[in-house]
Amino acid sequence: MGHLRQEVDPGEAGLDAKALDRLDRHFAHHVDDGRLPGFLVAVARGGRVAHLTAHGLRDIAAGLPVETDTLWRIYSMTKPVTAVAALILMEEGRLSLDDPVARYLPAFADPRVHVSGTGADVRTRPAAGPIRIRHLLTHTAGLTFGFYHAHPVDALYRAAGLESSVVPGTDLARTVDVYASLPLQFDPGTRWNYSVASNVLGRVIEVVSGQPLDAFFAERIFGPLGMADAGFHVPEEQASRLAELYGDTGDGGIEPIPGLPLRGRPRLLSGSGGMVASAHDWHRFMELLRRRGELDGVRLLAPGTVDLMTRNHLPGGADLRSFGSRPAHDVPGNDGVGFGLGVSVVVDPARTAAPVGLGTYGWSGVATTTFWVDPGRDLTVQFYTQLRPKSSNVFFPELKRLVHEAVTG
Fold it and tell me: Between helices 197-209 and 172-180, what is the axis angle to 10°?
């Protein structure tokens, strides 16, 4: 069940086999140079996998190869799943994009915005309006991450024990209450700042559904879609399939580093970055989106809802760089890319850092995992390795360029 399989020859799918071979050789070179442990890349058109390569090792010390059923920590690729869960509840009338978050999480009833100062000298004012569900889905709530070091509120997150975005040893409810006790960087809806918002949304889903987040995902998304290996932990019998996590050493090498505690159900279920999945699982999830809410006779969302999810929601058609606060404003790769509900959306291909089609949407994870769906080319792409780089990721622009060069029809 966990193996992804190639279903059609590249040429039959309008892909250049020589260009795809060039893609494989490029990333194999990174493995040979010791910059990556191994990788898996899959390219599909019209829902059929036309290119699939697993290369290198999932565990260097043990000598275990990357295989087509390898399990990957997908970190922030969890966020689109959390968005789909929220949209399911929205279609059932149990949630609305314009609902104040405080309706479900009272700790957010009176948000305040940072005005000036640091530490104990911080001055705040009442926010101009409430945080709404749409702000969580679009990362425009005014929340942040403690590891940014770009704003005084980031430092307040670290002082509150949120260096890694969650309070160690607590559950999601407690961590979200800590977020609510801290000031916002800006008034909700006025800027874009990638943040802990998906964890807050995960807690809203728990409150509205009456279920733990992992149970809701399993019952309403993973089960219906046949995502048999997706979840928040790896059962003992599947532990050998989980890829080891690595960090770069600063001298061009890599070394093992601690990853999420996936060998048992975690106390904190992170809708922001807690998932593990196989390439087969994620192919199923991408197909749900590509087919606008339906897969193999199972409909999770209406077509219009998926259209809403994958449309830019930043005001005036803005992109992440122009509408984002620091550090988003300083990332050249954010040119020409807007944001929908849980996914990025290309709004101006000519200004993006790598060639992609108008309306392409997707997201990435901190361990160098990524996916995108290009509706205009009927193309889906997924890439996995397990490397947490200390600086900006250089592999994704390379991947997009090489895939783009392979599309012929």
Answer: 120
